[in-house]
Design goal:
heterodimer; A: about 550 residues; alpha+beta; 22 strands; B: about 375 residues; mainly alpha; 11 helices; about 70% helix
């Protein structure tokens, strides 16, 4: 049993498994870009159901519309992180041991290393001098005496490579923690704010609200925002140039009782950041004000946000008045006398052609094409429905009858058959905002910074070892050296040569002619001391090129 | 709003750049075909490998990393000098093209008073420029100049596509793009893509070269066997067999490119170095994008299609870096991962920009 667990752990933490999991992760993410995702755009999922009625339920069953919260996606990345943690749990102790112990013993035969040289001879030298040269070059040095009186020097450089590697992988874990914190304790919502109105941070104010698992919707941080003025500018070809909103806000407990007082210029890419929430400008549009005076003289008037349909901001929306034409003297509800208006708003009505599409996005010559309906709006059925369209069922079954249409300019009136009056008063602009709080994002940012720095260090720093052996023979002292690097062998062979040259010069050695044909060595022949630094699987890069 | 004259100048400069790259390709091709490592040179020495192969058999494992066949020592020097001149000329043309591209992007930026990577056309142009500059650095530091045409081929194709199908008139930025982070996020994304492009080329060349080296080795082993059995028996059957072997010794495209490529080991190391540079830049580009996304869209990561593909590419390239130090994955297998990585970059650029709709819909292609 214990053996099986051990084996399973070894499999999970092996590089091969990590590789397979990486591939799986890449493959598993692709449907997330190919199928519409509910979290991003639920309407597109609905559309997909309409376009592919046979395929959609199958895709849905496999979590194809919720790839990134699907159990199989989670399984892959959790296994990957388990594998990563397992790998780290063995590498970190090895790393600290290497740092504490310093460079290993010099191998018996230096000429079996990828880079090696017989540097030179001298009547007498101090091994300490070579160590000093190396230490000045920021090598970590250990000197050892062998039994036969030979002195060896082991030096190592580039410990930071492994440091960077570990930092990178630990940072990945930090990013994952940041994401988890955000998912549990963060929240976000979207709402629409019309010019002149004030919105406050309560769940009821939101059109859509997504709380984290541990967020109490009743205890959102209190603040209120008032939209004073919204401005959009456009290029000659109608392309938007800038969106700007003048807002006032007040955060804290007194925001409930007092008006917003701090001014802020809200822009796309420039959110209002409060302590516990950010306030982001996302979109904008027009809210025509339709005034309806019913046959009893009751006036209905409020700005109704319309949704932009194209780049010239042709906007569509509906005004539904379930309380219109109800006799104030009677308690009976006359459902068939309710009023509804469909509207196509154009900030610039085209000079010629049918008035159904705006000519430009600016308010130069605004107008709204109004289609009036009388009858049962279907609003009392209790079924939640879009506030931007009429209940088409009611129209189809004749419960809601069209009364005709008319293009209204500002302050223009249209008297209907029963004497009631529709008037287009004018427009205000609206902006849609997202409000969000993510307490995990600083952790994730820190993790990302750690990832990048760890990555750069681990990819650019080379770890390499240098050994020198000082033997006495025939009354002369002979210095031989050897070394190896895991990556960048080219650069290392230069460094190696330079070090040898330095040793010859400083110690005033007599150079020894070396046999140029000495064969390079395969890694598998290397002494044990080398194995952990060289890539076991790679052929030795023995200073070629 | 936009300065039309500058914008027109920018368009002319794009054509200049493409022209210069095309001329450079001709130069590289001439050097490639007739140079020291060229096709003609190696055909002259076609008899050589057989003898060498025999020689290596006795000495244990043949050294695959050496250039097989090695460039002959007695090179017709006049020819070599001439084709080298073509190579230098090609490098100059490449530099001219790169400068024209720099000027093209600069005038674009000036004409619209913004950074010149605000739509798909400009982005691809920036990617190509990054790729060419990365290539120039390689050509000056490594003996790979004669391979220039392999890098310029995708560059010219991409630029041509960008300048025609994906072209967008010089225009100011839309509000969503008007951010400090546009400068950081998109420029680093383009830079990383350009460097990945050169890495893709060296990886593809590696795969050709590696197969070529294996083929040569196979032949060497066949020769050795034939020689041994020929000495022992000298029977008619064996001579038939060796004839069969001989007729199959026709290198077919793309292996015909093999003899003129650097050794597989050189290409392997080069590919790794390129990716070791590009991967951190790509990581940074993604992180910068996340920081921007937080300021623009309230969340730093939302699995928008573009984000998803950037993540996929990142994971694939991470897999390559891991594969390179995994038993049994180094070499051809890890190079296949590089190809998959580049394929994912291309999907991200073309499919996501033009087919999928998401928050990153700034291609400007109508």
């Amino acid at each position: 049993m214990k053996k099986d667990l051990r084996r399973a752990w070894n499999v999970i933490t092996s590089m091969r498994t990590a590789l397979v999991l990486l591939f799986l992760l890449a493959i598993a993410a692709t449907p997330g870009a190919m199928f519409p995702q509910r979290s991003l755009n639920p309407e597109k999922v609905t559309q997909y159901y309409k376009d592919h009625p046979d395929l959609a339920p199958i895709v849905d069953k496999m979590s194809g519309f919720e790839v990134f919260s699907s159990p199989w996606f989670a399984a892959i990345y959790l296994l990957l992180f388990l594998s990563l943690l397992g790998c780290l749990s063995t590498r970190i102790p090895v790393y600290f041991r290497a740092i504490v112990k310093g460079p290993p013993k010099a191998p018996k035969k230096l000429d079996r290393l990828p880079a090696h040289a017989t540097v030179g001879t001298a009547p007498a030298i101090k091994a300490e001098d070579i160590a000093t040269i190396l230490r000045k070059g920021r090598w970590r040095v250990r000197m050892r005496e062998e039994d036969n009186g030979t002195t060896t020097i082991s030096a190592e450089k580039g410990y930071l490579r492994e440091t960077g590697n570990l930092v990178f992988h630990l940072s990945l874990v930090a990013v994952l923690i940041g994401i988890a914190v955000g998912a549990l304790y963060g929240w976000s919502g979207g709402m629409l704010v019309t010019e002149g109105s004030t919105v406050c941070n309560t769940v009821q104010a939101y059109d859509q609200f997504t709380p984290g698992k541990f967020v109490k919707p009743t205890s959102l941080p209190p603040f209120c925002v008032k939209l004073d003025d919204f401005r959009a500018t456009f290029a000659d070809n109608g392309q938007p140039l800038s969106y700007e909103a003048d807002i006032k806000y007040r955060a804290g407990d007194d925001s409930v009782t007092q008006d917003p007082n701090t001014s802020f210029n809200l822009e796309v890419n420039k959110p209002l950041r409060m302590d516990d929430a950010g306030f982001y400008l996302i979109n904008h549009g027009f809210a025509p004000i339709i005034r309806y005076t019913d046959r009893y003289g009751t006036v209905f008037e409020s700005p109704t946000p319309f949704l932009p349909q194209d780049g010239a901001l042709t906007s569509e929306g509906v005004v539904v008045l379930p309380d219109a034409n109800q006799d104030p003297a009677s308690t009976e509800r006359a459902r068939d006398q309710q009023m509804a208006f469909e509207g196509i708003y154009m900030p610039t009505v085209p000079e010629s052609g049918p008035a159904i599409r705006s000519a430009r996005p600016e308010r130069n010559d605004e107008g709204v094409m109004v289609l009036a309906y009388r009858g049962d709006t279907g609003l009392n059925t209790g079924i939640p429905r879009s506030v931007y369209t009429l209940d088409q069922n009611q129209v189809d079954k004749g419960a809601l009858k069209p009364l005709g249409s008319k293009l209204l300019r500002p302050n223009e009136k249209w008297t209907l058959d029963d004497g009631s009056v529709v008037e287009f008063v004018g427009t205000v602009e609206w902006m849609s905002v997202n409000v969000a709080h993510d307490p995990g994002q600083l952790i994730a940012l820190g993790g990302a910074a750690g990832m990048i720095s760890g990555l750069m260090v681990s990819l650019f720093i080379r770890r390499r070892r240098f050994f020198a052996r000082i033997t006495t023979a025939d009354g002369n002292v002979l210095v031989t050296t050897g070394g190896l690097a895991r990556t960048g062998s080219e650069a290392f062979s230069r460094e190696f040569a330079a070090l040898n040259k330095k040793i010859v010069e400083r110690l005033d050695l007599t150079p020894v002619q070396e046999d140029p044909e000495s064969s390079p060595v395969k890694t598998k022949d290397l002494p044990d001391a080398m194995q952990e630094i060289t890539d076991v699987r790679a052929p030795a890069s023995a200073g070629k090129e | 709003m936009t300065n039309t004259e500058l914008a027109e100048l920018s368009d002319t400069l794009l054509i200049t750049a493409i022209g210069a790259y095309a001329v450079a390709m001709v130069g590289y091709t001439v050097e490639y075909a007739f140079g020291a490592k060229g096709a003609v040179a190696s055909r002259v020495k076609a008899q050589l490998p057989k003898q060498r192969a025999l020689a290596t058999v006795g000495g244990g494992t043949p050294d695959t990393s050496a250039d097989v066949p090695t460039p002959p020592a007695e090179e017709p020097s006049a020819k070599r000098g001439k084709s080298a001149r073509f190579g230098v000329f090609a490098i100059i043309a490449t530099i001219v093209g790169a400068l024209a591209q720099v000027a093209c992007l600069t005038t674009r930026g000036l004409s619209t008073d913004r950074v010149p990577w605000g739509n798909m056309y400009e982005f691809i142009s920036a990617v190509c420029l990054a790729g060419v500059v990365a290539w120039l650095v390689l050509a000056f530091t490594k003996p790979v100049r004669h391979l220039g045409m392999f890098v310029l081929l995708p560059v010219v194709l991409l630029l041509g596509l960008a300048g025609t199908v994906l072209y967008a008139e010089a225009a100011p930025l839309m509000p969503a793009l008007n951010s400090f982070w546009l400068k950081i996020h998109v420029s680093t994304a383009a830079l990383a893509s350009g460097v990945f492009l050169t890495g893709f080329v060296t990886a593809a060349l590696y795969l050709i070269r590696e197969r070529y080296e294996r083929r040569i080795e196979e032949w060497a082993v066949q020769d050795a066997k034939a020689a041994v059995s020929g000495m022992a028996e000298n029977s008619a059957d064996d001579s038939d067999e060796s004839e069969d072997a001989d007729t199959s010794r026709e290198l077919r495209f793309p292996l015909t490119l093999g003899p003129r490529l650097p050794s597989s080991e050189t290409l392997e190391r080069l590919t790794f170095r390129i990716h070791a540079l590009a991967f951190p830049i790509w990581t940074f580009a993604i992180v910068a994008g996340a920081i921007w996304a937080e300021a623009a869209w309230t969340r730093y990561w939302g699995w928008d299609p573009k984000e998803t593909w950037a993540f996929i590419s990142w994971v694939i390239y991470a897999a390559y870096l891991h594969a390179r130090s995994t038993n049994g994955w180094r070499g051809a297998k890890s190079m296949m991962i590089v190809l998959a990585g580049w394929a994912s970059m291309m999907v991200n650029l073309f499919v996501i920009n033009l087919v999928t709709s998401g928050l990153h819909s700034y291609s400007g292609v109508s």
